[in-house]
Amino acid sequence: MAGNNMRELVQSMQTRILGRTGLKVKILGVGGISPQDVVEKALEYGLNFYDVHGYKDAQGVDGRVRFKNAFGKTSLKREDVVLTGRSAALTCEELLKDLDNALDLMKMDYFDIYGLYNITQAAGRVEKAMGPGGALEGLKKAKAAGKIRFIGGVSGHHHKELIRLIKTDEFDAVMVAVNVFDQDVVSEVLPVTRALNMGTLAMKPFAKGIFISNPKAALNYVFSCDISAAIPGMMNLLELECNIRAAAGFCGLSKADMAALKKEADEISKTEGTHICRQCGYCVPVCEQNIDIKNIFYMERQANRYYSKPWAQEAYEKVENNATKCIECGNCEKECPYDLPIREMLKKTHTDLVKP
Ligand code: SF4
Ligand code: SF4
Questions:
Q1: What is the pLDDT of residue 307?
Q2: How far is the C-alpha of 216 from the C-alpha of 177, rounded, in Å?
Q3: Which pTM does this prediction carry?
Q4: What CATH code would you report for 2-260?
């Protein structure tokens, strides 16, 4: 009964054209970290857009294998779904190898959209990927060979770099974090993707778990922006069904939605101030002390916002290289797209999380 209801809701959900690709997708897609049971149900309910990526689940199963397993349980044909994937490779050779490996894991012949992952993560990546022998060359070869239909999936958090890349006009679709917090994306990135008629896929509509008390309002905000589809990662069936209800009921951003978002934003500034880690992970590889900055800030959010302080303290206790290992070199801050004072934040987090 619930399944029928979900299928009807998905059927009634708005469909949008994914920019110049001409692909038609439901406004709610399924993000790459979603576990297999969520993907299975989403396929059964009729959602047609999936980000298929190598994120591992708690059992260590690769996202491409999870998708293959879920898809194998349906009677759907390949052309019933739109699939997007990404590679972090910077050279032509590596990208083609990555793509072949992904297709092999999925037991499929092609991606609808395939592109570059976290391309703006560090200085020099864009130049390498876009230059001679770079990953873009690999994408073009893959397209000519029929392994991908469109070039895209350029995800990135450094918005100025991302705009520079988008303006090369080499991409058919772009993947970018869109949520009520990241207003510069809405005012600076989306107008450029619109002008170039690029498909725009909104990652992180809940700002990586920052906005949680009213998912309907957070999604309505994202749907009301100039995007093709939102692709939240959904960790369980409850989240999937809740998001389907919100997406099916979308008919614009209401005053009540905006009031709910503003209330939550005010609460967030009370608990986290303006220093909010977006969990992009760009700072992690440059820390020579191997401090897992991203996860430490995740623990702090759990402690201060979601009232799970004992859990966060336990988790922090197990961190081998905690905030006390910081030698204050500042390398992480140079990489943070949100200009966060990481050193200062680490000290505060340590004080908050260390058991008395
Ligand atoms: S400032 Fe601290 S946390 Fe940041 S890179 Fe240096 S050692 Fe790592
Ligand atoms: S501190 Fe900055 S760079 Fe590091 S994960 Fe958070 S937002 Fe990303």
A1: 61
A2: 17
A3: 0.85
A4: 3.20.20.100
Q: What is the pLDDT of residues 290-337, one digit of tens each?
A: 999 999 998 888 787 766 788 889 999 999 999 999 999 999 999 898
pLDDT tens track for 5-14: 999 999 999 9
Amino acid at 137: E
Placement of tokens 């990546």 in the chain: 125
Residues of the chain with pLDDT under 70: 1-2, 121-122, 208-209, 211-212, 271-273, 306-307
The closest-lying atom of ligand 2 relative to the alpha carbon of residue 336 is 3
The residue whose CA has the least distance to atom 3 of ligand 1 is 326
Which ligand 1 atom sits nearest the alpha carbon of residue 343?
A: 1
Cα(103) to ligand 2 centroid in Å equals: 31
For 236, the token pair is 């369980």
The full set of domain ranges for the chain reads 2-260, 284-353
Q: Whose CA is nearest to atom 6 of ligand 2?
A: 277
Ligand closest to Cα of 301 equals 2
DSSP 175: E
344-349 long-range Cβ contacts below 8 angstroms, 24+ apart: 345/275, 345/277, 345/297, 346/291, 346/293, 346/296, 347/323, 349/296, 349/297, 349/299, 349/300, 349/323
Question: Is there an atom of ligand 1 within 6 Å of 323 CB?
Answer: no
List for the chain the helix, strand, coil content (%; round to 5).
50, 15, 40
Residue having the nearest C-alpha atom to atom 4 of ligand 2? 283
Pocket probe for ligand 1: among 284, 287, 322, 340, the residue whose CB has the most ligand atoms within 8 Å is 287
